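Work through this protein:
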Amino acid sequence: MSKDINAKNKDMNTKTAAAQGSQGARSTQGDSVADAIIKTQDLVKTYRKGKIETRALRGVSMEIPRGSFSCIVGPSGHGKSTLMHLIGGLDRATSGDVSIDGISYAELSDNELSELRASKIGFVFQFFNLLQNLTALENIETAMMFNKNGLHSAKEQRARALELLELVGLSEKAHAKPYELSGGQQQRVSIARALANDPEILLMDEPTGNLDSKSEDEVLDQLLYIHKTGKTIVIVTHNTEVSDRAELLYEVRDGRLNSVTRKGVTL
């Protein structure tokens, strides 16, 4: 299965390089995005409890450009987090499809989807989900232990974890336990952990939801810095302090993509 995923990734990377060489500019969302790393097509998600059906998503089609900083916004309960879970391969759509770098989720087995998710996507959630008995350094190292295509030696993993702590400005906290860190510092460790396997995409669900204003600013500054390294960042948020910094806003309302805005201009 790993060989199949790797072959698909290699083929898509070749196509991507060719596309980037021939198209310097991205098209508007009204047309096909010139270099979309994430695509959804007629995405529907229905939850069933007994005879009761709840349709969380009602045919969402969207494209997110490679290297963009995007936010998915909209009222609570209208499908934002469901959309993020489907994009991240954490759940399967009832119908429709998601593709990452041209690889269709519908064509992948559960194991293949897990492998793709591990290699392509890093996750950050509102609750930090750090292991309380491990240090910041060890929390980051754990993310590398389960990646079949990643760094295999403990020495390599340790060097990578230290590099990421430096990236998020926490080198001096390498041996601190989560309870010894502020909320903002814990979230920055979570971001470093999400980057452990060098994913192309960071998916985040309300990453500043539990932070005070000072910690929120620290995290947002780190995200903007990471974005400049070429990562595609997608954040689900209610927070205008976060969405105001985004290049693209995707508004989800009543389970549908209601609008796409690029820096204040509706596309």
Summary: Residues 124 and 191 are 6 Å apart (CA to CA). The helical segments are 2-22, 80-87, 110-120, 136-144, 154-167, 183-194, 213-227, 240-243.
